[in-house]
Structure formats: structure tokens, C-alpha cells
Amino acid sequence: MVKIEVKDLKLWFGNKKILKEISMSIPEKSVLAIIGPSGCGKSTFLRSLNRMNDFIKGVKIEGKVYLDGKNIYSPDVNVFELRKKVGMVFQKPNPFPKTIYENIAYGLKIHGIKDKKMIQETVEKSLRDANLWNEVKDKLFDNAFSLSGGQQQRLCIARAIAIKPEVILMDEPTSALDPIATKRFENLVEELKKDYTIVIVTHNIQQAARVSQYTAFLYVGELIEFNRTEKIFTAPEDKRTEDYITGKFS
Amino acid sequence: MEKTKKQEIIFAVIKILAYLSVVFLATLLGYIFFRGFKVINIRFLTDVPRNGITEGGIFPAILGTFYLVLVSFIFAVPIGILAGVYIAEYTEENRFTQFIRVSVNILSGVPSIVFGLFGLAIFVNKMHFGVSILSGGLTLGILILPTVIQATIEALRSVPYSFREASFGIGATKWQTVKNIVLPTGISGILTGIILSIGRAAGETAPILFTAATFYTGRLPKSIFDEVMALPYLIYGLMTTGTFPDKQIPIAYGASTILLLLVFTMSIIAIIIRLKSRRNRKW
Question: Is the minimum CB–CB distance between A97 and chain B shorter than 8 Å?
């Protein structure tokens, strides 16, 4: 089942063309890794999947992105509902300067959930699903900034999944974490893909190989290759893909 | 050797200059407090002036200043915060917003006596509020409005963009983000600015000169359309038009002391809030 279908996506910042005619089909309940050298448009591409680029001044987007067959750029789309369905985890852990509990409850409240009991249950379930519950269950009302970086990032996952998204976008989520926290995070991604479609941008080629079923290689705004991860890593079709994953350039 | 010598001399000069400002403050406070505390007692704070302000207390002036500050606060704080939110969150940097910000800056530089004249022309005469708490409070409100706006803009600009991004990322609207994330995060900065501006409003004489204050009235105000006594104007009046200087000048010093204590309390509260929020701030 295809979850997201990208068709001829083009994006400019001012006069600079950042993404060039990108098309791909992202299968449901799997992990897609997007790899490529710095400045190749990975993050920009990711952010065009939940329209987080809309905030950038001078951005121009053409082409279509279908989520369950519905173009997210069509004028009748409610962008807030879209972002509820397509959650996001950022490069640097960015919890709110509130309690751990409030960090998760906030998303529920803004989407109109008022029932206290339901909020409590969802907070617990989200923290459990993010493998964080055991570490924080006794300090739910401490400030989120008292957590370690790795815990903060898992809290951000919990915050994202609390509002029951279908897709989770991750923008280099482990780049600020140490190796142990990174390992835990990758294990979590492994578990989450049973329920969610995950698109993860990563600088770390080994990470892509470890966590993903599909890999897309972007180079200067162009999609060079999209395939099953084992295919990309064992028999890439394009010379540039091979050079990149073998470390000839980065 | 030459270099270090030179450096030492410059350091010494800078150090003396820095201490000098502390000396000025200490002298000023010492002098006012020394003369002021002689007359301050419970009666001075709670009684009305008697015998042509040669005896009794200054309670009506304290109360009047409180009312004036309250009205200016009610007027300036909501408008100032909302204007600041609008400029900081809802506008992009362009000619128009630059124009607004420059206007706010200029407004904060306008001499306070001009605000007084403006208040007289608009609130007292045009709008027929008369010489009253309302006119004076509104005039003071306009005076402190730029400070509140600037404090709000500064406070909101210091909130990291990543907080907003996180909020948008879970489908929050701009207003939900501003209300639930940005404002609570920046609130201590806004509060600090507001409290300092309250101190300023309490101490200003010129804006209330023609709009609200009266040198002497035996009765306490019954509505916002009454004129009031006010601390700064009382001091001014006692020193310029008083006919019994030997009895009235000590009262002026007493009133000055109260006014200073009031302004100081405001500054100290502002400093405490700032320190506290800095300590709690972890991002």
C-alpha cells in the first residue's frame, strides 16, 4: 500500500531551485531513509511532506504530494489537520519549556480533547510507546528540560504519536545524541514502524542501513535513486549512489 | 612594561567612574531618606493633610498615585502586549513594520510634558473627562505604552524558533502557538518591562500636571472623574507654592521617600522575576 505519493515536486527558495522534479512512492508502515550530502535538499524535501516549508518567506512549490490519494497542496486542505496526521521530530530535541506531562497533553488539548482521564491515559500510552515511561513515570510534572538529550528526543516522539498521526517525519533525529541514546532511538523506530509510516532524514549512512526498508538518495535537489534499502546498499544502480554510500564523497 | 602600566591606569579610571555612579545613588538616597524618615510614621501614611499641608499625613496623595497607576496599567498593558505580539509574531520585517517600530521608539522619546499637554487637549477638553483620574491615568498610559510594547517584542523575540516549530509540527495554529507556548515562555520578560514602567508612571509629574493632579483636596476621590492628589505633584507643590517652608519641606521629603520606596520596590520585584526566570531557564 502506498501511503505518500510524490509527483514532480519542485521547490524554490526565491530564485534558487532546491528540489528538482522529485517523484516517489512511500509505502505504508515502513521506514524510508533519505540520505545525501549536506545541502542536497533532504530536510527541505521532508518538510514539504507536512508543509512546514510554508513558513519560509519566498518559497514556491509546484507538483503534488498525495497522502492517501489526497493532494496535500490542494487549496481545500486544512494544514493543521494535515500536520496532525503527519507528525514531525526535529534535529535538535525541542520539548516545550513545560512539564513532561504538559508536553504531551498540549497536543491533545489543541485538537480539542478535554476529557482529563483520556488525556492521562494517552500521556501514559504515548510515553510507553516511546520507551520512556519507566524512566519518567515518577516525575511526570518535572520540567522536560531536566531530561537527558536522548530522553528529550523520545519525549518528542511521544508528543508526536500522542495525537495519533499516520506518518512521522524525522529530521536527523539522532544527530544531537550520543551513541547509546542513538541505539535506543533506532530500536524505537524499529518498533514504531509496525504502526506508522516513517520518513527519516539521516546523515549517517549506517543508520539508514540499520533502520530502513527503503532508501532514497538525493543529490543537489535531485532524486538519484529510490529502492529497497538492501538493493541500494548492495547493488546501487547509479554510480553517484555507490560513491556516496562507499564514502567517496560526503 | 609600558603597556601594562597604561592598562592599569585605564582600569583604575574606569573603576573610579563605575563606583562614582554608586556614590551618586547612595548620596541621593541617603540624603532623601535621612530627611524623609524623620517625618514618616503611621499617621503620615494614613491621615489626610491638615492645616494647609503643614500637619497630618499624605494618604490622599498615596492613594491618588495608586489610582493613576492603576488606570494607566489597565489601559497600557493589554494594548501594549497585544501590539507587541502583533509586531513580533504576526508581521514580517518590511517597510510598514519598520515604520511601526520606529514610531514606537520615537513615542518613547517624547518629553513627558508634551504628553501632559496632549492629555489636556484630548482627554480633559476634547473628550470632556475633565481634570480627573481617568484623564491622568490615560495620559500616563500613553507614556508607558511604548515601554510595554518594546518589552513584549524583546521578550517574544527571545523565545527560540524551535518551540514554535514544535507546536506547528503537531498541528497547532499560529494563535494556539502564541497563546500556549510563546507568551508563557516570554512572560517574565514582559512582566519585568511592565513593572518597571509602573515605577516610571508613579514618578512622573508632568503628564498629570494639567490632567489629573491637584495640590490639595480634603476629600478622597469617589469616581474616576474626580481630581486627585498625587505624590510627585504634592512634592512639586510643597516646594514651589508652599507658604510655610519650615513645616512643608519636611513633608516634601517624606513624600519623596515614599515615592522612592515605591519605585524601588517595583525595580526589586522586576529584578527578582528576571533572576528567577533566568535560573529556571534551561534551553
Answer: yes
* Residue B166 contacts A where some CB pair is shorter than 8 Å: yes
A145/B170 touch (CB, cutoff 8 Å), yes or no: no
Number of domains present in the structure of chain A: 1
Whether the CB of B173 is below 8 Å from some CB of chain A: the reply is: yes
The domain that holds A57 is classified in CATH as: 3.40.50.300
Residue A218 lies in a domain: yes
Q: What is the pLDDT of residues B56-75, one digit of tens each?
A: 889 999 999 999 999 999 99
Across the interface, which of B160, B170, B181 has its CB nearest the CB of A87? Answer: B170
Cell matching residue B131: 481634570
Is position A110 within any domain?
Answer: yes
Helix/strand/coil for A5: strand
* Residues of the domain holding A117: 2-245
Strand partners, A87: A168
| Mean pLDDT value across residues B39-53 | 86
pLDDT-derived band of residue B92, with 50, 70 and 90 as boundaries? confident
Cell 514539504 found at: A48
Distance (Å, rounded) from C-alpha B173 to C-alpha B3?
60
Give the per-residue pLDDT at B91. Answer: 85
Q: What is the tens place of the pLDDT at every residue in B123-174? A: 999 999 989 999 999 999 999 999 999 999 999 999 999 999 999 999 999 9
Cβ contact (<8 Å) for A106 and B173? no
pLDDT tens string A7-18: 999 999 999 999
Query: From the CA of B173, how many Å to the nearest CA of chain A?
Result: 7
Residues B220-231 pLDDT 10s: 888 889 988 999
Torsion of CA B76, B79, B83, B84, to 10 degrees: 50
Cα separation, B35 vs B13, in Å, equals 33
Q: What is the mean pLDDT of residues A65-73?
A: 95
> For residue B174, what is the nearest residue in chain A, using CA coordinates?
A80
| Nearest CA-CA distance, residue B197 and chain A, Å | 27
Under an 8 A CB cutoff, do B168 and A55 touch?
Answer: yes
State CA A72 to chain mean position distance.
17
Residue B243 has pLDDT above 90, yes or no: no
Written out in words, the top-level CATH class of the domain with range B42-280 is mainly alpha
- Looking at this predicted complex, what is its ipTM? 0.91
Q: How many angstroms away from the CA of B80 is the closest CA of chain A?
A: 25
Query: Does A173 reach chain B within 8 Å, measured CB to CB?
Result: no
Tell me whether residues A52 and B169 touch, CB distance under 8 A.
yes
Contact B170 A90 (CB under 8 A): no
B2 contact A CB<8A: no
Nearest to A37 by CA among A227, A225, A221, A226: A221
A61 vs A49: CA distance, rounded Å: 11
Residue boundaries of the structural domains of chain B? 42-280
Distance between CA atoms of residues A185 and A93, nearest Å: 12
Strands A222-228 and B49-50: unpaired
Give the confidence band of B276 by pLDDT, cuts at 50, 70, 90: confident
